């Protein structure tokens, strides 16, 4: 391990010399004046450069290795997107500028909203939400506003599949709904009979990901939509997995009433480490009046900003959403076009099925058959027979420069590994990953302890998960 920047510090070293403050003591309230100097590391510029370059070499990302993180779509992000978002006309704007000075940017956002409508089959979009879960919460508020406007106040329940992303029940609960779980059938889709038994006059909505977290497209989606709609509920689409169906199938055509998208995933913005994100929400006509204030709208051929609507759910975020992330997404859409988006989805599905077929003689695929953009394998048998877990496989992958798949999700698959190779990886990369997975499996059969000791080549070795969760060290304490 390299030293912390504080440990590199030497008294008297400087990187920059700040000018003297022009403020006088009387200009600052006493409660804001420090009683002691701020303890910052004292280092030279070369120390800082080497420190952060060293950290970057220890970080794993899509730019330096395979990153098959299921459900989160960590794919390569074209530099063209960054170039567009860095243009001064976009990057140097101030959010408090008068509307008439940012006409070009408003047109760009309107173009993005219109493009997303075309991709998803929705009638209107807002780019207010800052991330996927924020979009889910927005969608739940829109659904609630719709039912309230109809005086249909008895609808207090939202149905969520047992395979759903964890943010689905959380978003529904935050919006004030009781969450009802519906089981999956033996094919990995929604159990139709159980859904019928759960849907009633209290049902506000069903939240559904399609393809779901098992990487499976629910073949009963039209029947599911009819069941919910016939009961007076609405259908919500978790768009986390849209990258499997862009240009091939639209949520709006399946019967969904509201959808959120993860622009930072599907439409290619770097999002490792917690950001940046963007979670636009699209709706059918019946929900359009309730869209958040701050939504870009078109009135009499004039693009403007929706404000002060009496039926709106209100603002979901300051200003206009994560603007530059939205510009990156628009660039991605324009550079690929409709045919390119369709090809991206086809490649995502092809890569996942290729990798699954090359591994299913060793690894147990949770739900065999054709998958979409990802597939899930279970290490339950290996855990029981050889004491080798999904976590052990993941740790071993680190030693060869491959980021682990998503572990232990979805919860309905024990010892799960969710693998998503995504559309940007070459056959050569996939073949390398496939051989690595096979080698690790054979090691599990012959020398399980080697996997339980992994990783051996990383800066941080095997971590005590319980200790790290219960007693994390969050601050540096000076000796």
Mean pLDDT: 93
User: Would you count the extended β strands for me?
Assistant: 13
Helix content: 25-40%
Alpha carbon gap, first and last residue? 18 Å
Strand order of the largest sheet: 1-7-6-5-4-2-3
CATH superfamily of the largest domain: Type I PLP-dependent aspartate aminotransferase-like (Major domain)
Instruction: Return the domain count.
Output: 3
**What would the CATH topology of the largest domain be?**
Aspartate Aminotransferase, domain 2
Please state roughly what percent of the residues sit in beta strands, choosing from under 5%, 5-15%, 15-25%, 25-35%, 35-45% or over 45%.
5-15%
Structure classification: alpha/beta
Taking pLDDT < 50 over at least 5 consecutive residues as the criterion, the unreliable ranges are: none
| Whole-angstrom Rg | 25 Å
Tally of helical runs: 17
Shape from CA axes? globular
Q: What's the CATH architecture name of the largest domain? A: 3-Layer(aba) Sandwich
Major β-sheet profile: 7 strands, mixed
Q: At the first level of CATH, what is the class of the largest domain?
A: Alpha Beta
Order of helices and strands: HHHHHEHEHEHEHEHEHEEEHEEHHEEHHH
